[in-house]
Amino acid sequence: MKPFGFHEGDRSEFLAQFAFSTIGYCVPVPRQFDRFGVDVIVHLFERVGANVAATGRAVALQVKSDAGEILIDTKEMRDCLYATSLPFFLAVIDKAEWRLDVYTTLLRLLAYWSNPDAAVRLVPGDKDARAFPEDGSTIVFLGKPIASVLLADLEAEAIKVETREGLSRVVNHWARWEQRHLDWRDDGVPFVACPSQYETGVPFSTAYGAIDFLTVPDPGRLPAANNNFARVLTAVHGYYGQLLEHAHTLSDDARVRLTERNHIIEALLGNFLAHGTG
To answer: Cα(23)–Cα(168) distance, rounded to whole angstroms?
Structure first.
């Protein structure tokens, strides 16, 4: 026999797969028993005329039947939360309302940089006035859903195309943004860039001033951050150099601006190489 709660969780996963199958190829993760982790991997696709084509971008889903707090209190669960190589979303299925709510878990990386060994409580919704737990765990408020759709709207003839495209647009937007953070995580850079505000179902603005830059002060991570910055400077310097080799294709103003910026990059890179990145 199987516990009823696990069976209900399976039903939510079936519905999540149904919803996400409208924007990608869904692969459920096989397992013998339930635990926190990746339930479904979605290889996102796009419509190309009368066909669909894979984009090469994939995301991971943890599926829940409600928007309650999720306690991550073992090393295995924390590894699933922090070490994933894919953008990681929480998909909440409300079976009574036949609704899918999708939450970003981007801010989990702040908990990782603060103390990767502490228990974590993921809380869908905006920050509230609750006190910090006495057990030393970290609360991560996930904010409002980045997307919310009625399952019926994904199939309703009059609006299904619009609904599916809207879901795809938002998931792709957040997935690309989180992928940058996963690269920074792998480079040891304790940095999270979050939109100051966003609307459910609408891609957020990445313009300067619309993003909050959050970090965890830790001098011990400075060498890794500096090394990463030096690699970026090296790449940009090389790119500008290649462009200047083809300067005859640029306007006079563009060539002057590019030359000036390349001198700035060269000076910064020279400073890093002269003084080290430690």
So the answer is: 6
